[in-house]
């Protein structure tokens, strides 16, 4: 833990978290995969890069700071439930990816780690949506479950109930997010890592 909380790492965690919080403010739907009320953000990119540099513990810390900063900047529209889910989904991506990469810092391990993180995130998204997010929106905002399922069925005919909605819409949505985050991370990581090594604190 001492290695995590060095002056340099604290500065880097603050920088990556702040960038992630800003990126979290810009969200966009993927209408051909999931209903428009599911929006993707790219805030996991700086956190995944930071996790590769500093390790999985730093990744969890940065995810938490990101959410706190986002709440301070924008507040919440989901009574914090959506923010908690975003934190959990982010952790499910960056922690497995970082753990695998930290064992042997090679391109192969980086891609294996990002693949594992993406799949873990997809599974976690199914579980969170089935047991937490969808029931919450039904109760808190009066959204009929049938309307949610119907919105999914318009895009994916295989959607017939809550479980199929999470598997057919939510899982692919998170897989696409994981692929985008992973590809961008793969493109920029080497350059950012090289720059970070030049920082002396």
TrEMBL record:
InterPro entries: ECF_trnsprt_substrate-spec, RibU. One of its GO terms (cellular component) is plasma membrane. Keywords: Cell membrane, Membrane, Transmembrane, Transmembrane helix, Transport. It is a multi-pass membrane protein. The keyword Cell membrane applies. It comes from the Bacteria. GO terms for molecular function: riboflavin transmembrane transporter activity. Its main location: membrane. It is found in: Cell membrane. Signal peptide: none annotated. The chain crosses the membrane at residues 12-33, 45-65, 111-138, 163-189. Belongs to the prokaryotic riboflavin transporter (P-RFT) (TC 2.A.87) family. Probably a riboflavin-binding protein that interacts with the energy-coupling factor (ECF) ABC-transporter complex. This is Riboflavin transporter.
